[in-house]
Amino acid sequence: MRRWVGRVIVLPKPSVNDPQGLAVLDGLSSLGFSGIERVRVGRSVEVYLSSEDEQEAARELDEMCRRLLANTLIESYTFEVCEEPDE
Amino acid sequence: MRRWVGRVIVLPKPSVNDPQGLAVLDGLSSLGFSGIERVRVGRSVEVYLSSEDEQEAARELDEMCRRLLANTLIESYTFEVCEEPDE
Lengths: 87, 87
What we know:
Shape of chain A: elongated
Oligomer: homodimer
CATH superfamily of chain A: Phosphoribosylformylglycinamidine synthase subunit PurS
Number of helices of chain A: 2
Distance between the termini of chain A: 14 Å
CATH class of chain A: Alpha Beta
CATH topology of chain A: Mth169, Chain: A
Largest sheet of chain A: 3 strands, antiparallel
Order of helices and strands of chain A: EHEHE
Structural class of chain A: alpha+beta
Radius of gyration of chain A: 17 Å
Number of domains of chain A: 1
């Protein structure tokens, strides 16, 4: 079994209200940052897992996203899989 | 001015307790996923901004991370900057 890390990004879909994003935009403006058009805030998740090969790790990660990590009604997700060197 | 999107990932530093990560690990195990060693949960932030060039956009994003988006005592951040095509 080889070791992998899946880096998942979950973000609210464009049509969904994102109050956290609005709050961060306000905060950045208050700090003097200008030229910011839009901010979206979501989650990032790193999953360290063992799996036979990259394809199997990606299949498992996709299932984790659909079943637990993302609410696919209102959120979209992307992930990448990288091999972890043995310690 | 050109338009950019900064994709920021904020994660708890390895030495910091991550109760959300433990909860997600428990949840995944309950759903029957095996072979998971560790999970870390943080935030992802997309910032759409205007800036003269990529270097300036990256400089602004780094300052946003240090001043608002990440708590650098307990969190680490990474980001990438991509140019947004004009609509």
